[in-house]
Amino acid sequence: MGGGSSDDRRRRKAALFLLSCGLLGMVPHGLAPLARMLPAVGLASVLGAYVVRTVVLRPPEPSDGLADGPGGNAVDTAGAPAADSPTAPAVDVVVAARDEEAVIGRLVERVTRLRWPAEQLRLWVIDDGSHDSTPQRLAELQGLYPQLRVLRRSRDAGGGKSGALNLVLPQLQGRWLLVLDADADLAPDLLERLIPFAETGGWAAVQLRKAEVNAEANWLTRAQAMEMAFDAFIQERRLARGGVAELRGNGQLLRRDAVHTAGGFNEATITDDLDLSFRFLLAGLPIGVLWNPPVCEEAVLSLAALWRQRQRWAEGGLQRFLDYGDQLVFGRLNGAQKLDLAAFFVLQYVLPVMTVADLAGALLTGTPPGMGPFSVVALGLSGYSLAAGCGRPAEGPPLPKPTPANIALAMGYLMHWFVVIPWVALKMALLPKTLVWAKTAHGAAGIEEAWQAGHDLAADPEVGGIEIAAESSGA
């Protein structure tokens, strides 16, 4: 997918997206007052009904304690081989690392503590041209942990994280690969619960809920912790209604043969996880979501770091719709999947651009903004999902309590997408893209304490256990 022609097509599509959303936001300001409100009211009504059905109304509970697997078939999550079974499948844990001296030692130790047969577990670390002491630290760790394998490539090898993952992919032999970030933290029983869920459910991939270990560092990290719970909750509800799941990079379990079927990792994208989500979807490879246990990571500590991170996420998210749009519309997805994708594409990408254009039209014409009804749907979805997600029993670091103050904080924080999305769409329409490795600075302080504080809750039968959501697959 590389090359100038691909970049040119993306820029043209981004420009068309930007122009279309801009016109939709500005044109109503030239209409009569009543007519000006009709488009927003109509769209808000349709999307509001879909959001209520998908996110607010509780989906039917599977019978007999079983979870819905692909195609809506009930599956028993206790039926797969356990860790002490002679048929326990081989698992490769894969980490792409660049300048991770602060956390790489803790990660290696955590992975080797996982309760899984030693001969069926390998840890692969791809040192992607680190300039710090990561290579020396990995060399030391190889002498201590025989399960650790290290690959190295130059800093300018290209392809970003996808290139690093593709380097190791031909050497993997396990049935499953678990992709982690260098700051990931895991419960010792994670594979004992995750692999049976994936095997019995028939999943090609499973995404773990992401939990922020430094949620109480400041208001920004607290909001990010609530955002991760919000995201996992919405994904579960979308899947339960036959919609679409997405991978989130850190904590994604992938069946190795499915990755090959999907064509490996796309080196022409800046978000390997979001791109692979659509590749799996189009190949008919179902993705599940697991609430407990989570994968733990660190939230960024500053607005500057958040701005860099969210620009990358926004660009990768919009890019996949531009790259695969024709296949999503005309491909063999079922109606529920297409409706789900359309609704959340409008909410995630169209709404922010239209809102900015609406405000510009209001200033230019002296007329009131017209996107109010549309925005109410998005804000209502956010508020409800934040409260519901943070109010659920959760292992790992404790989630921020869904108090009115915290909900208001998180809703205000989520408004940053109304700045990020239009800005990124404008950049994509005007500027060529240069792929770069973008990483978050990590620090080890406080992670052990944060994990332990939440993991102790797993002993409580009201909190522990696997909670799952299923995707209905089909042509």
Question: What do you see in this structure?
Answer:
Helix content is 50%, strand content 12%. The protein is α/β, with parallel strands linked by helices. The chain has a domain at 75-306: Spore Coat Polysaccharide Biosynthesis Protein SpsA, Chain A (Alpha-Beta Complex). An eight-stranded mixed beta sheet has the order 5-4-3-6-8-7-9-10, sandwiched between helices. A two-stranded antiparallel ribbon has the order 1-2. Strand 3 (91-97), helix 3 (104-112) and strand 4 (121-128) form a beta-alpha-beta unit. Helix 2 packs parallel to helix 12 (372-390). The protein is globular and about 75 Å long.
Topology:
Blueprint: H1 4-26, H2 33-56, E1 67-68, E2 74-75, E3 91-97, H3 104-112, E4 121-128, H4 134-144, E5 148-153, H5 160-168, E6 176-180, H6 190-201, E7 205-212, H7 219-240, E8 252-255, H8 256-261, H9 272-282, E9 287-297, H10 303-330, H11 335-365, H12 372-390, H13 404-414, H14 417-430, H15 447-455, E10 468-469
Parallel strand pairs: 3-4, 3-6, 4-5, 7-9
Antiparallel strand pairs: 1-2, 6-8, 7-8, 9-10
Helix pairs in contact: 1-11, 1-14, 2-12, 7-12, 7-13, 9-10, 10-14, 11-14, 12-13
Short synopsis of the structure:
This protein has a domain at 75-306: Spore Coat Polysaccharide Biosynthesis Protein SpsA, Chain A (Alpha-Beta Complex).
